[in-house]
């Protein structure tokens, strides 16, 4: 049992080490930084119009930033990261070497997917960190805005994690695409088209039928509760796409 745990840990660690040779970690940190900085600049110049007197400015600051993130940039980040995480094996044609190792083909898929999920957790934590960082900068630069109020760190982190969980369907589907297509372009374009299509259909009364809308829909109730129907459906979708990935991986022939 102990040997199995150690072996699993080492395999997962090996997948994380591969990320150092890609831009995936940079994307996971840089895009949340960009969004948080953009919001900071907007509040710096227009904060007096955005903050209601007598209220905690952190509420609007956190919610509107993360709502924008969930509706557009979170799906695009996942799409880009999914293509990057498999880029080493595809670009260097390393699949033959990987499948020759004494590891089951399903395990190969599982540990890469696990590393991808970790990457998305890193993205959620990075978003929360940069939101708080730039919010605290506003305390010193524009003290009149009232950002010295309670900073709602817990609520911000929970909302980030809620959006990540609601994006599980996107995580599973985009990873499956990038795992099977050697081309970086194909899964990226497919994901981009679905994301744009979902955005165009955002006012559709049956928008809940489109899983790429779940991150945004999950933020409609900006409370501290993690669970909602969109997260449940998204997690079930992740299980189904993972099962499909295990099957495809087990049948994969490398010449």
From TrEMBL:
This is ABC-2 family transporter protein. Pfam families: ABC2_membrane_4. It comes from Pedobacter steynii. Keywords: Membrane, Transmembrane, Transmembrane helix. The chain crosses the membrane at residues 21-44, 68-88, 109-139, 159-177, 184-204, 224-248. The keyword Zinc does not apply. It comes from the Bacteria. The keyword Transmembrane helix applies.
